[in-house]
Specification:
CATH class of the largest domain in chain A: Alpha Beta
Structural class of chain A: alpha/beta
Strand content of chain B: 5-15%
CATH architecture of the largest domain in chain A: 2-Layer Sandwich
Largest sheet of chain A: 5 strands, parallel
CATH topology of the largest domain in chain A: Aconitase, domain 3
CATH architecture of chain B: Alpha-Beta Barrel
Number of helices of chain A: 17
Distance between the termini of chain A: 49 Å
Strand order of the largest sheet of chain A: 5-4-3-6-7
Radius of gyration of chain B: 18 Å
Largest sheet of chain B: 4 strands, antiparallel
Shape of chain B: globular
Helix content of chain B: 25-40%
Number of helices of chain B: 8
Radius of gyration of chain A: 21 Å
Structural class of chain B: alpha/beta
Oligomer: heterodimer
Helix content of chain A: 25-40%
CATH class of chain B: Alpha Beta
Number of domains of chain A: 2
Number of domains of chain B: 1
CATH topology of chain B: Aconitase, domain 4
Strand content of chain A: 15-25%
Order of helices and strands of chain B: EEHHEHEHEHEEEHHH
Distance between the termini of chain B: 31 Å
Chain lengths: 469, 198
């Protein structure tokens, strides 16, 4: 092939409007997703400048960060949260933006809603005022998290100023061991390449492990690209991508289907295309992984011990010490056996149907440890409905979990679901930053949903492969 | 729109040491329950600066000698995590006009630049040296020179970096790209029409 290109270049070129004076690209964003936290200021800035929304049909909204998961009716008891949902509703009505509202049956976390509505498709550019927008790359889209000023730029022009990213190909070859999940793969990658190893890059994930992943597993991995510093992460589209999209509300109609699929296939990286960097990992080397520190790169395999600050690189020593002080963990101690107070299953990383199914299949015969708080928060109302049709809610409730309504919930605790004091939470979410789960002294250990369930039933960080046999 | 050309920032500096300072740390999520960015300045680094009962914890930002600082000095990967513009807005509204760090997370960097707040990177040794000088003498006047890629104070000249696009935007008073984006009306329309989806 003449001049082979990778997917990122093809999509970037197709959406490039031109070069700006400072050398950046003016990039057209085909789909813009918004939510209640990072959009009201942008609408406000446009009102101030009397600027209209340029392509309202290209923006879609939902409400996720602040929604309570145990309170069905408005007004919400949190008046600030109540004001935010009302503001978003008003902005959408006034500007003609489609809003998946709480009474629509389609509300949920923006990165769960986009794909399940069929809004996320191969070859698109997608942006949202949320760093986990990288999730949408699982479909072979190029998707970025942006700030509020860029939300403003997108509403006003459907374009944004951006410097072109380099592309790092990450191959995960071979196969994963049993009981090892996409979450473990991405935590392993971040541990290996560092939390800022991806700065300036888009990550293209591939290899036999990603080929064999379901679309939802690919979303879990792409979701956390930003935790490795990469603003975008993607997987080339394949037959699974097309199958997942067929028949969804915003997917192309059956009449156009074959033509669309063949056009989508063209976006895949060409054989022999260049990458700025390539990393290869063996799937067999990935173990169930848990974080012990205060950033997602501070992780170990379940059989390993918590690092000793005296034995790490001197540039990392202060970070390790700070992390251990916050986490109240003993250097050199096995990570297994760390006492857990709270278990959280949900988030845009791991709040999809397959995540809940994977856990529910293992729960019968097990009970959440006495005194431990365990909650399940489906990623969207549709995930919740499908799970309930399969009876998963009963499985969780029987095991002692609380079954909640859809939202971001305890991933970032902008709603009432928060840690108290220095509680330690086994969490299927994406960030273990200090205070992330709502208490400044709260502690978070990130892991796969099945590992969270193992922690919930044993009361401590445990190897799910042993707990569930 | 006539934006000021930002070729250098001069002011007092405060070290907020540490690598991987994330945007949740800069502005905890609970303070994002707001419809405008007004008032975010007072919550800057809130949980690191204050106890649960609101009493001050030992922190450079709480020291009277650093109250007037407009330049922050930090470590590697500053501003990682959430894309929340609330973080640079909170810094800006607390009076900061430039950040010096090891390097920056990309989304934070873009957000800060679009507020006209230069983020320059410097070596670990330079950061250490500068922080030590500032701690010894908090009334030290520090110059972040975006044009010449230097950090200057007393008789010291340290080198720093910033990416070309951001530097050009700051020097040319074009750090808020909206006007330029809006002017490409035909190009936007042409691209929109050429795409295989609407």
């Amino acid at each position: 092939m003449m001049n082979p290109k990778n997917l990122f270049e093809k999509v970037w070129n197709e959406h490039s409007v031109g070069e700006l004076a400072n050398g950046q690209t003016q990039l057209f964003i085909g789909r813009h997703l918004i939510h209640e936290v990072t959009s009201p200021q942008a609408f406000g800035m446009l009102r101030e400048k009397s600027l209209p929304i340029r392509y309202p049909e290209r923006t879609f909204a939902t409400v996720d960060h602040i929604v309570p998961t145990d309170e069905a009716h408005e007004p919400y008891s949190d008046i600030l949260a109540d004001a935010m949902i009302k503001e978003l509703r008003k902005n959408c009505t006034d500007s003609g933006v489609t809003f998946f509202d709480v009474d629509s049956g389609n509300q949920g976390i923006v990165h769960v809603v986009g794909p399940e509505q069929g809004l996320t498709q191969p070859g698109m550019t997608i942006a949202c005022g949320d760093s986990h927008t990288s999730t949408h790359g699982a479909f072979g889209a190029v998707a970025f998290g942006v700030g509020t000023s860029q939300v403003r730029d997108l509403l006003a022009t459907q374009t944004m100023a951006m410097s072109k990213l380099k592309v790092r190909r990450i191959n995960v070859d071979g196969t994963l061991g049993s009981g090892v999940y996409a979450k473990d793969v991405i935590l392993h990658i971040i541990r290996l390449l560092g939390v800022n190893g991806g700065t300036g890059f888009a990550y293209e994930y591939g290899g036999s492990v990603f080929d064999s992943f379901s679309i939802e597993e690919r979303m879990t991995a792409c979701n956390m690209s930003i935790e490795g510093g990469a603003r975008a992460g993607y997987v080339n589209p394949d037959i699974k991508t097309f199958k997942y999209l067929k028949g969804r509300p915003y997917s192309p109609s059956d009449d156009d289907w074959e033509e669309k699929v063949s056009a989508w296939s063209e976006y895949s990286s060409d054989e022999g295309c260049a990458y700025d960097d390539t990393v290869t990992i063996q799937g067999a080397e990935v173990a169930p992984t848990v974080t012990w520190g205060i950033n997602p790169g501070q992780a170990v395999a379940i059989g390993e011990s918590i690092p000793d600050p005296n034995l790490v690189d001197k540039n990392e020593r202060a970070s390790v010490e700070e992390a251990l002080e916050h986490m109240k963990l003993k250097p050199g101690a096995p990570v297994q056996g760390t006492k857990v107070d709270v278990a959280f299953i949900g988030s845009c990383t791991n709040g999809r149907l397959s995540d809940l199914e994977e856990v529910a299949a293992r729960l019968p015969g097990h009970k959440v440890r006495d005194g431990l708080k365990a909650i399940v928060v489906p990623g969207s109302q549709i995930v919740s409905k499908l799970a309930m049709e399969k009876g998963l809610d009963k499985v969780f409730i029987d095991a002692g979990f609380e079954w909640r309504a859809a939202g971001c919930s305890m991933c970032l605790a902008m709603n009432p679901d928060k840690l108290i004091g220095d509680q330690l939470c086994a969490s299927s979410s994406n960030r273990n930053f200090k205070g992330r789960q709502g208490s400044p002294t709260g502690r978070t250990m990130l892991m796969s949903p099945v590992m969270v369930a193992a922690a919930a039933v044993t009361g401590q960080v445990s190897d799910a492969r042993i707990v569930f046999g | 729109m006539n934006l000021p050309k930002i070729s250098q920032v001069t002011g007092l500096a405060v070290p907020v040491p540490g690598d991987d300072i994330d945007t949740d740390r800069i502005i905890p999520a609970r303070f994002m329950k707001c419809l405008t960015f007004d008032g975010l300045g007072e919550y800057l680094f809130y949980d690191t600066r204050f106890d649960g009962d609101g009493s001050e914890k030992p922190h450079n930002l709480n020291l009277p000698c650093f109250r007037e600082a407009s330049i922050m000095i930090s470590g590697a990967n500053f501003g990682c995590g959430s894309s929340r513009e609330h973080a640079p807005q909170s810094l800006y509204r607390a009076g900061f006009r430039a950040i010096i760090a090891g390097n920056f997370a990309e989304i934070f960097f873009g957000n800060a630049t679009s507020l006209g707040m230069p983020c320059v990177s410097s070596s670990r040794d330079n950061l250490k040296k500068l922080s030590a000088s500032v701690k010894t003498n908090p009334s030290l006047k520090v110059i972040v020179d975006v044009e010449n890629l230097q950090i200057r104070y007393e008789n010291e000249v340290l080198t720093c970096e910033i990416n070309r696009g951001a530097r050009d935007s700051l020097l040319n008073g074009a750090w808020d790209p909206l006007e330029e984006l809006l002017s490409a009306t035909d190009g936007i329309e042409k691209t929109a029409r050429s795409l295989p989806y609407s």
